[in-house]
Structure formats: C-alpha cells, structure tokens
Target: Transposase IS116/IS110/IS902 family protein
Amino acid sequence: MQRDGSQNDYQLFVGIDVAALTVTAAWLLTHAKPTAAITLPQTPEGHCQLAERLLAVCPTAAEVLVVIEATGSYWMRLATFLALKGFAVSVVNPAQSHYFARALLKRSKSDALDAQTLAQLAAALQPGLWQPPPEIYYQLQQRLQHRDALLQQRQQLHNQLHALRQFPLVVAAVQASLEQLSHTFDEQIAQMEAQLEALLAQDSLWHQAATKLRTIKGIGSVTAGWVLVSTLNFGCCATVEAAVAYAGLAPRSHRSGTSLHRPERIGHAGNARLRTALYMASLSAIRCNQQIKSFYQRLRAAGKPAKVALCAAARKLLHIAWAVVKTDTPFDAEHGRLVCLQ
Model:
C-alpha cells in the first residue's frame, strides 16, 4: 500500500536490488555519491544484517528512505521487515527505475548498478511510502490466485478429455482417471470459493466493501474479491482517476505535431488481473445492468467497436465500484445511482 511521504527530512537514501537468493544494497547521504554496493543473503539473518548496517550509518530508522523495485514477489519479505523496523520504505514500479536510469544515460546493468540507481532515485524523487497490507489481503490474494490456477488446470484437463474422445478406441481406465481428476478440480474450486466467502465475513471493513460491490449487477463475489485485493480496498487509489489508471483502463494519447496522430488505446500497462476481472464483469453487466447496458449500446450506436465499448463499460464499472466503497453506499441498479441511506 502506498501512502504520501509527509516527511522529507531523510538523511540516508538506500536502493536495494532484490533477487531470489541475495539482496544488493547501496546508499548515499544528502548531496553525496552512492556508496559501493554490498550483497547479503536473502534470509532473515541477511535482512537483520542489512538493518544493522543502515542503522550504523543513520541511527534513526525513520530518517532512512529505502527504495525497492516491485519485481516478482522476492521484495515482499524484505520490504515488510524494514517497514516493521521503522524504516521509510517505498516500493516503485520497475518501469520508473528503468526510465530513471535511461535519464541518467546509464547503459550497463548489474545488481550493484541497479542498487545505486535506486538510491539516486530515492534522493531525487522521494517517492511515496509503502505500508504492509493487512493479513486478509494475503489470505484472499493467495486463494484467488490458486482458484485461477485450478480453473486453468481444469480447462487443460477438459481439453485432454475432448482430444481423447476423438480416438476410435478410448481406453476406459484413462478416461475414468481424467474424469476423476476433473471432479477433484470441481471440488477444490468450490472449496476455494467457500473459503473466500468465509474470509470476507471475518473482516468487517472488507466485508462491508464486498457487500456494497455486489449491489452492482455484473460484479459477483470473485470479481469483488479481485477488486478489493488489487486496490487494497481502494486504499491505494485516492481518486477514481487513480483507480482507472492503476487498472490500465485509461486511454492513452499518442500525438506529436501534425505528423503523428494515433488512435487512443488502453495499452498493456496497469494491473492486468484487475483489468481482466472488470472486463469479464462487463460482459455480464451489458446484459443485466441497465445503466451499463444503455452506456454500451450508445457507444456501439456511435460506431465504437465491441471491444472498445466493453473496455469503456469496464471503466464505468470501476467508477461505480470506487464510489460505492468510498461512500459506503449500495448501488441502486434500477435508477442508476447510489442509494442514500438514512
């Protein structure tokens, strides 16, 4: 979760390049050059050694700004450890550090150089701070990902069964084994969905948000779960425009003078899983949600391609989702507005 960095009197700026087995760190004091990078093991002991090294340079943890790239999942344990130790931790998009390095005209790349570049980025930009998400985030996120994996594996199994049945001779034992596996996947998917419902009921804030989201026709329990997990219950999106940009549903213009004028498109930036969840929800919403249906039909009548209209419908769903969660107000699908509760 990102939060605004209200404190800008940092004394030490640290850049950390995280890998599967090691962490490489470099730091600099205000208006100084980065130090030579050090490499430590990616273990609890290595994390403690790093914290000790940083505190030896700057004894006050809150005056140390640590910048880490959000690459894969290797950064999560270290970022959480440092944040709980009181360090100011910022987790940046790898694209930001990539273009920052290009702006510095850096051509070479190594773990040590990346750590030094991140330290320079910390000193120059002082990006917003990161906070560890609540436990329910990990509980929901891992189950949602596991459900996705189970669905994919079940589809692969169904494809194998379909191909098997095309043979003139089908071995009954093989077919029975595949069908049994398919039944097992069905049971496990149902178990994951039941656990998702039970987990949401255990956290009052997330349960209230999920309940409000499900008042929007087209958004079910799984989509609501992905929306809440991806945006941390909209805690990382202060405005609806930020939420749309984070989902990658904001059209991007590409124009320059009179010679370059490309059509606006959403591209591939943003949270792909959130974008997929909203896009799939829009397929249902254009049939059962009168407001989204009318909006979609107006775009199609204006000549917009189906996919463009669906992406716009997904963006409108996100606008509504942000509003119902932020105002803690259910949505009145019949009148296309928020319900005012007394």
